Amino acid sequence: MKKFNKFLLFSLIASLVLVLAACTGGDDEDTGDNGEETGEETGENTGEDTGEEAGGDSEQVLNVNIKEEPPSLNPGLASDTTSSSVLDQVFEGLTRIGPDGQPVNAMAEKIETSDDLTTYTFTIREGATWSNGDPVTAQNFEYAWKWVLNPENAETDYAYQLYSIKNAQKAKAGEVSLDEVGITAKDDKTLVVELEQPTPYFLHLTAFHTYYPVNQNVVEGNDEWFTDAGDTFVTNGPYKLESWSHKDKIVLKKNEDYWDAENVSIKTINMFMVENEDTALNMFNQGELDWVGSPFDSVPLASIPTLKEEGKLNISPLAGVYYYAFNVDEAPFNNKKIRKAFAMSINRKAIVENITQGGQLPAMALVPPTIWEENEEGYFQDNNVEEAKKLLQEGLEEEGMDELPPVTIHYNTSEAHAAIAQAIQDMWRQNLGVEVDLANEEWQVYLDTMGNGNFQVGRMGWLADFNDAINFLEIFQTIGGNNYTNWENEEYASLLEESRTITDKEERTSVLKEAEQIFMDELPISPIYYYTNVYIKKDYVKDVKPSAMGSINLKYGSIEK
Amino acid sequence: MGRYLIQRFGSMVVSLFFIVTITFILMQLAPGGPFASEKKIPPEIEQQMNEKYGLNDPLHIQYFNYLKDVAQWDFGPSFKYTGQSVNDIINRSFEYSLLLGLESIFLALSIGVFLGVIAALRHNTSVDYTAMVIAVLGISVPNFILAAALQYFFAMKLGVLPVARFDSFLHTILPAVALATTPMAFIARLMRSSMLDVLNSDYIKTAKAKGLNERVVTYRHALRNAIMPVVSYLGPLVVAILTGSFVIEEIFDIPGLGAEFVNSVTNRDYTVIMGTTVFFSALLLVSILLVDLLYTLIDPRIKFGKEGGKS
Fold first, then answer.
1. What domains can be seen in chain A, in order of their start residue?
2. pTM confidence score
């Protein structure tokens, strides 16, 4: 009897252990079942092996955290920074943003521009090949761009990035046929692109992922070519997608057939997807990651002061502005002087030094200093309480009001947004004597509120799509879209239109400056600060720097241990 | 038995139907949409996307289409992850959640039952007090604090276990322990009180009076009856562990289903919200059914479908 009992207990535990073991076993079997996934696995193993072989004194392996599963690795569909941080390494456009932030020739060997800046002729590099051996042709570009502009391909959020091209917007809206779009492959190596208007930043655009080519031979007729690493994921960049274990890890391997392969040092890039910032920082401290922060993920806000003190924190400017939008249809923000009074009574320096702490610059203009250096100064003085009080008084008289009505600041849920809103609430209360409420909303609800104009003051931010002032100024050209303020100005809009036809660089800048002057005079928003890239990296990671556009080219990097 | 099962399946289908309907309505009521983002999409492109995903159809058409797909266990494509279907996402994430869940349930059950039994057997001794102090601590410390503490000591300070991720058996230890602690403590307390109850009952006294060996009395007669409350706790426990692992999954970077479940709501990824909700509901209903079936195995007095039986 006693023995039987023991046996029963033993077998119970044994069976539980078996169940557990079976589950782990099942895991392996699953990968075995699927041809592609086995490929991944062996790939990963050989990858680590070669990494070690090549190792010794200089093991060229970089471990980074990209935070989340990239939503799409199809360059035509991707519209987020996680996807682009992978795509920028595995694909290559006609140009690439070089280490100094200017576009350099990449897939294009030669670029000719017509005098009116509306026709670009690209000659594709001799010997540029896809990872399956096919040559990269002008037709590949034409196919990829027109695929994005095809109204039947609906998920292409970023199609508007191509709207500088002649008839692109009309084709996407289905008004003209794709044949009328200004993209022509003259022969295998020559691509001619006609633009709507002179676009001085067009070579910046061609470095962007929506402008990457795809290999028509493998892509056509296969809607799922980009969903897994494997035979159909054919790329033309410095790296190949070795494996993609969804929501877990991406491994990139150097592409030995890349035209510039001799200048690519890092051989393997492991991209982990660690969502929690603190966990990622712990992994960094344990040596499991070589990089934490922009542009892949972010450094936890709470650890920034310590890292700064230890001198580990790296900061570089980012072309973006964090601002408070005023709803100019809502009292008291219908008055220009009152808007100015609110903007001037914010102490931006205190905010960037005590709250954000990532080396951000106080913003007193719309276009960031990465584009217009002189905007570091701005159009008015930060924290000018005297002037603000005077303007407020004048504004109130104009409106025939005795005192300000209560004001509500809207922002979406986030520790940093909340802290900034509280600080500004306090500043406005003290400096202007106004009753300020805070309203915090979940992101989607917030976008809804802003879109419907149910706000007085709301937090917003803008990160540049390309490195040009027009990208910031055109947000406010008309009401709607990203302009939540309900502010419009005829003169402003016509200046922007005028700038689109000017080919002379100086002249164009001065027209855009004039527009910004009007904007800063009307002040439908209060700029708060210019964004920065904030990151920490291991000392042995060299020559890698996030750009002002928040992208990164690991091609130029190296590991020196 | 057969009839009972058919009845149960019928009620499961009805419950699932209500869950799908209510989730669908709540989802439509929530502001925002899957394509909203800080940078607005031009209207013509948004229009095309709505068209493609059928968001332009009248609500009742969307609803019936969805019901039809769910009946075939097809949850449709994800809005956020292009080219991936919700079924793919559930299949690949559930593997991790299942493994972590089973490991935690095993830990919680084995340690919990053990602690409870020895506490009851050594009632009012230092063993009892120690076991119950552990149990109270386990219940009061939230699992995310425990997770952070475990990570700090074992991975950062001692360096004996990996910080995060889910690559090998070593990686699974910390998250499983963190996840198992609260249910373990709960089971220990449950087990102790029910064991004390049983040990004082007449048939145990009879067995002892008959001169049966102490061990036989404890394990064969007492344990078997005392474990019933723990078994009924198993159903909710399974689901709580599988769905409640979101925080643990995040801290230890495990690509499980809990995270998908929560993140899909923030993303307004409609199909993933529906898919994970239906999946978890089905799981809950099935595990409750299994627990009920388990009763009969342990306690032969319980019969299905008969009066007086527990069902």
1. 7-25+315-533 (3.10.105.10), 39-71+238-298+538-559 (3.40.190.10), 92-219 (3.90.76.10)
2. 0.86
